[in-house]
Amino acid sequence: MCESTGADDNTVLEVACHDCGLDPLCEVLGYGKHELCETDAVLMRRQPVQRGAVLFRPDQPFYALFAIKSGSFKAVSVDLSGKERVVGFFLPGDLIGTEGIANHVYSYAVRALEESSVCKLAVNRLLNSGQDTEKLQAALIRMLGQEVVVNHLVTTSLIQQNAEQRIAAFILSLSKRSGLRGMPQYQLILSMSRSDIASYLGLARETVSRVLTKFQNYGLIGLRKHVLKVLNPEGLEKATIFR
Amino acid sequence: MCESTGADDNTVLEVACHDCGLDPLCEVLGYGKHELCETDAVLMRRQPVQRGAVLFRPDQPFYALFAIKSGSFKAVSVDLSGKERVVGFFLPGDLIGTEGIANHVYSYAVRALEESSVCKLAVNRLLNSGQDTEKLQAALIRMLGQEVVVNHLVTTSLIQQNAEQRIAAFILSLSKRSGLRGMPQYQLILSMSRSDIASYLGLARETVSRVLTKFQNYGLIGLRKHVLKVLNPEGLEKATIFR
DNA sequence: CGTTTTCTTTGATCTGAGTCAATTTCTAGG
DNA sequence: CCTAGAAATTGACTCAGATCAAAGAAAACG
CA dihedral defined by B58, B206, B243, A168, rounded to 10 degrees? Predict the structure, then answer.
């Protein structure tokens, strides 16, 4: 084994492979058992990533998919007017880079929000890997199909909602994703800044701040520094509905 | 041949197959040459659809992908609060139903906005079709990958924009899609109602109305009934940027 | 450890877009 | 062709959330 996570700090939260978005492919590849830490490996597991490090930049040729093992990332793209916008957050188990499959280049920059680790699948080496092509393709189809579903849900809900609804939905989405990946559902680390959240949700950072304190006053959440506790999930759920 | 488009009306605008989103699959299937109009066919081409007719409803089991040959459709879903929301418009060449691939059910209703025709690919019959599975899968991957790219673009842009920017971007997106599919780029038919546009963009229908007249006054577009002419594409492009 | 810089919160004000209401225009049906 | 109902436009008013401003809390760094 060559796991170099370093810290045996028990606060490091990792997804189990069977809860990860890349799992369909890893399964076909036998979890890369025979090629761990080889530089030319198709699947490289648990690569450490420093806080602030960049996985890839826009217009860089597509060469790999990433799955987050631990930590978190943000996706940033620069729009036509030159402004930076956060276009996504990624948590353990999430899949990064799927747009590159059709585009052949990445379309945004992805930056680590904290000390993290990723599994890296070198797609360009996949076809020469001697694996069963049909199974690989089937796995890719499952993953892409899932991606389409999730993206569409995000889109259609955010556009129609006001500030409170967006923020309630944002918190619940973090919470649900975390739970789905076998991690604590009601205790979240907001590793991104308020400005990042605001940019992602299309709000001013002052609004994010105000709504978060409002939610605290209502007892929906507890927030201390960057640790967010979901105290009343049903209440938050209702907050996403009423207008 | 058994093309039953009926009307030889030369105003009916159709995409050519090589401009269609379903083409990667149709190509593999040899465009269904040998099975036109068979009821158990894998690929059924140019099925006529009445104005107002429904292709599928939410929660209905996934069984087919559709590609629009002519006409237009809207996707409608009902949110948690019970309100109907337009979540997408489809033009000739667009692919409908991709979310069903992973979900196994459709997630919204799709309704024809006018007299239309579609090509229908019975996915459940695809695997038993005796075709080369590897090629079929590769085609599906290309299509899904494309879908991921397009969806993400739509999402991230709409959320950050004000009313004028959204409407300018909406018009340009219709225009570009139309041009991309080999159809007139600067003369569009707005087959959907103002309310539909408003619902899709997350605006009030009065706002859509006001902005459209503003754009007319600025000479960016010409609008008579449901025929929209893009008079100044660069101007519209700028309108998507400045805030 | 103190200093600087960045991030966050809170308050005051302003504005874009929603809502309500009244016409006007379009469409479908007889 | 006329008429009823639906869709679209236009105006007046209101309010959610942006912007501006300033103070307070954390993080970064020599």
Answer: -40
Answer for the pair A198, A207: CB distance below 8 angstroms, yes or no. Answer: yes
Local confidence pLDDT in tens for the 243 residues of chain A: 344 433 334 457 899 999 999 999 999 888 866 554 555 678 999 999 999 999 999 999 999 999 999 999 999 998 878 889 999 999 999 999 999 999 999 999 999 999 999 999 998 888 777 778 888 999 999 999 999 998 888 888 889 999 999 999 999 999 999 999 999 999 999 999 999 999 999 999 999 999 999 999 999 999 988 899 999 999 999 999 876
- Token duo for residue A144: 């892409």
Mutate to test the interface with B, among A89, A127, A160 (most CBs of B within 10 A): A160
CA distance B237 to B123: 39
* Beta bridge pairs of residue A23: none
Q: In chain A, what is the straight-line distance between the N-terminal and C-terminal CA atoms, in Å?
A: 54
Q: How far is the CA of A159 from the C1' of C16 (A)?
A: 16
CA-CA distance, B82 to B107, in Å (whole number)?
A: 15
Yes or no: say if A39 and A32 are a contact pair by the CB < 8 Å rule.
no
Provide the residue type at B233 as one letter.
Answer: P
Q: DSSP character for A33?
A: G
What would you measure as the largest C-alpha separation in chain B, in angstroms? 58
pLDDT digits (tens, 9 = 90+) for A91-130: 999 999 999 999 999 999 999 999 999 999 998 888 777 7
Within A 33-62, residues with CB less than 7 Å from strand C = none
SS (H, E, C) chain A: CCCCCCCCCCCCCECCHHHCCCHHHHHHCHHHHHHCCCCCCCEEEEEEECCCCEEECCCCECCEEEEEEECCEEEEEECCCCCEEEEEEECCCCEECCHHHHHCECCCEEEECCCEEEEEEEHHHCCCCCCCHHHHHHHHHHHHHHHHHHHHHHHHHHHHCCHHHHHHHHHHHHHHHHHHCCCCCCEEECCCCHHHHHHHHCCCHHHHHHHHHHHHHCCCEEEECCEEEECCHHHHHHHCCCC
- In this complex, the nucleotide whose C1' atom is nearest to the CA atom of residue A52 is D28
State pLDDT tens for residues B115-134. 999 999 998 888 777 778 88
The beta-carbon neighbor of A148 closest among B148, B157, B243 is: B148
CB B229 within 8 A of CB B235: no
What's the token pair of residue B164? 């004028």
3-state secondary structure of A127: coil
- Asked whether the beta carbons of B85 and A160 are under 8 A apart, the reply is yes
Q: Is B23 helix (H, G, I), strand (E, B) or coil?
A: helix
pTM for this one? 0.90
Give the one of A87, A145, A151 whose C-beta lies nearest to B101's C-beta. Answer: A145
**Tell me, what amino acid is at A183?**
M
